[in-house]
Design brief:
This protein has 396 residues and is of the alpha+beta class. The chain has seven helices and 16 strands. Strands 5-2-1-8 form a four-stranded antiparallel beta sheet, with no helix packed on it. The radius of gyration is 44 Å and the shape is elongated.
């Protein structure tokens, strides 16, 4: 009996209990850490959930960023493919912020002016009122502004205001009168250019206002502000237009030039008109050869001539001939002035070459065409070119 008892006691050892009678176990590592944090269990759960949400949001942002990057690369590849074909505005168009900052840099100021047209006397009164917020052109942060006013139909006639020292907001209050027929209003532009005066250097242009008179209702007096824009580098003076026909007959070697009419000629006389006539000249191998001229038409800017001139030009020389048409203003007292000219031939370009080519391609048939007059310097320089452009001549 004693041996049974001792063996049973060796097999089943008693389990330790606390004073209350409940069993106790060794806590895990995580539970030990949680037990050491002086916070209630619900607070710890809330912190864990919040941290999990933050991690999920970070993962979503990373995934979105990667996807957008891939899409952007695909778009750029597609646009780059289009460079050889259609337009690629998305690659060259700047951001709106860049555009706005660029516009800010180009601010040149504003100009206030007035316009009044007298239909009875055919005079236009231009009032230069004031300017505001002009661009500073001097090192001291100011400008010495003044305004030049003119019409594109008569560039030589220009008016100037007084110069106002060291100001970006000058008040001019000056007016100027232009004589301009109502018929010419639609083809003329009023130009007002604001300059910065320099005593010892070239005057700098701040900006300009260009007002096509065809867009203006001159039935009422106009007074308004306009933003200054960057000034045009060159002003193309309108000299007028001329219409003439050409006819060449290879079998008879006859070149017929008919001067038909001209229109919108530049005003050369003080009373706003011109006494035009036309010189027709042939140049062979860059040397003056033959010339003829029309009668003079008195006091008109749109003369009608309808005068024909016949020149003998051998077929084997037609490629070496230049035809020069020049419009002149006749003056009894002083020297005649040249208004403008054009030249045609195998060395010409554009419409002038096309007109000459049409004549050669259509023997025995007169070919008429309008041409804009060019300055004498421009035509003379072109005639001095040594290069020849030979056209295949039609077989008669």
């Amino acid at each position: 009996m004693a041996s049974k008892t001792s063996s049973s006691s060796m097999i089943a050892s008693p389990v330790p209990t606390n004073s209350t009678g409940a069993t106790t176990a060794q806590p895990s590592f995580i539970e030990g850490i949680i037990n050491e944090i002086p916070l209630p269990k619900w607070a710890l759960i809330a912190i864990v959930v919040a941290a999990g949400l933050v991690l999920i949001l970070i993962l979503i942002c990373i995934i979105k960023y990667c996807c957008c990057k891939k899409k952007r690369k695909k778009k750029e590849k597609l646009n780059l493919v289009n460079i050889n074909g259609s337009t690629t505005a998305s690659l060259v168009q700047p951001d709106m912020d860049d555009l706005e900052s660029g516009l800010e840099d180009e601010k040149r100021g504003r100009l206030q002016y007035s316009l009044e047209y007298n239909f009875r006397s055919q005079e236009m009164k231009v009032g230069v009122k004031q300017a505001a917020d002009l661009k500073a052109m001097d090192s001291g942060g100011t400008s010495d502004p003044y305004v030049i006013v003119y019409l594109t139909s008569d560039i030589k006639k220009k008016y100037e205001t007084k110069v106002y020292r060291k100001t970006l907001n000058p008040v001019f209050n000056e007016s100027f009168t232009f004589q301009i027929p109502q018929a010419e209003m639609s083809e003329s532009t009023l130009v007002m250019q604001v300059y910065d005066f320099n005593r010892f250097a070239r005057h700098d242009i701040i900006g300009e206002v260009r007002l096509p008179l065809s867009n203006v209702d001159l039935q009422h007096v106009i007074e308004q502000w306009n933003e200054l824009i960057t000034a045009s580098k060159t002003e193309q003076e309108h000299l007028g237009e001329i219409c003439f026909s050409l006819r060449y007959v290879p079998t008879t070697s006859k070149l017929t030039v008919v001067i038909l009419e001209a229109k919108k000629l530049k005003k050369m006389d003080s009373h706003g008109l011109t006494d035009p006539y036309v010189k027709v000249q042939l140049i062979l191998n860059k040397k003056k050869w033959k010339k003829k001229k029309t009668s003079v038409k008195k006091s008109t800017l749109s003369p009608y001539f309808n005068e024909a001139f016949v020149f003998d030009v051998p077929f084997n020389q037609i490629q070496n001939v230049d035809l020069v048409i020049a419009v002149w203003d006749y003056d009894k007292v002083t020297k005649n002035e040249q208004i403008g000219k054009v030249f045609l031939g195998c060395r010409a370009t554009g419409n002038h070459l096309r007109h000459w080519s049409d004549m050669l391609a259509n023997p025995r048939r007169p070919i008429a065409q309008w041409h804009s007059l060019q300055s004498a310097e421009e035509v003379d320089n072109a005639l001095g070119l040594k290069t020849h452009f030979k056209l295949p001549l039609p077989i008669p």
